[in-house]
Description:
- By secondary structure, the protein is mainly beta.
- Helices cover 7% and strands 48% of the residues.
- The strands form four sheets. Strands 1, 2, 3, 4, 5, 6, 12 and 13 form an eight-stranded antiparallel beta sheet that branches.
- The N and C termini lie far apart (84 Å).
Amino acid sequence: MRKLITLIGLFLSFYNVGLAQNWxxxxxxxxxxxxxxxxxxxxxxxxxxxxxxxxSLTCQQILAxxxxxxxxNMATVTNTxxxxxxxxxxxxxxxxxxSNTFDTIYNFNAVVGDQWSLTPKSYTxxxxxxxxxxxxxxxTIQGVTLKWLKxxxxxxxxxxxxxxxxxxxxxxxxxxxxxxFLSGFNLCKWxxxxxxxxxxxxxxxSQIINYKNNLDTNACDFYAxxxxxxxSKINQGGISVYPNPVHDYLIVKSDYLNSQSTKVSYLTxxxxxxxxxxxxxxxxxxxxxxxxxxxxxxxYFIKLTDEDLKTYTQKIIVE
Length: 319
């Protein structure tokens, strides 16, 4: 009988350890790209930050750290804050102090057809936004088998009765592959892009070390450098950006992009107010064709940045 009790105790201890591994256990670090209006691309880093008790529940405290560059004065902008989540048998909820409520972020035990509302619910349309489970399965990462959910996301902007529709994969421990549910505002957006995280860039915990998916090849803590008079400049010879003015397709081409010593790594376009429009990785052949036909007419700035952080900037006019 004593042996049976011991075996049951061992089973329960292993079971509880398994539960603790399902969501932001000690040592977990998650990086995602991060964007804020009028800022250059940066990153958001989530780190397991211990536990706290809220409404008699033991909750995970997650430290969020953002870093990017504000185009208004070219200053590096950093911000830190804590997010409180609770994990219970596969259901992950986030605590909102203003309403003293917990809202669902993920349900790792969902089955096909299950759905839950998006957070935050601070305005009417976002409150009716839904995550719908289409398929379930498992995925093995570095020898660790994790559940996954294939989902459709219907995110209603507050100004529209029609949702933005996304498809995504949610993986146990690390969350959604393509969208940042912790940040919240990237799925049911405000009138502007606001501040939000994106896909998984890097993920680590006690068993999975620096997992990266194919959505991002940048460093975990990558953030773009601003256009500045103090920047080193790319040699202009051989760079072509045409036609200018442009109506539909802008062509960027340069022999410099094919240099074996240093290569241009990405291209960014800003409007005349400094708002980031796009960021693109440079094609290996050094030629980029960008559709600007849907851009509002006006002045824009295109910036090329190489691996040594030297830059080339040119004004373009969209007519």
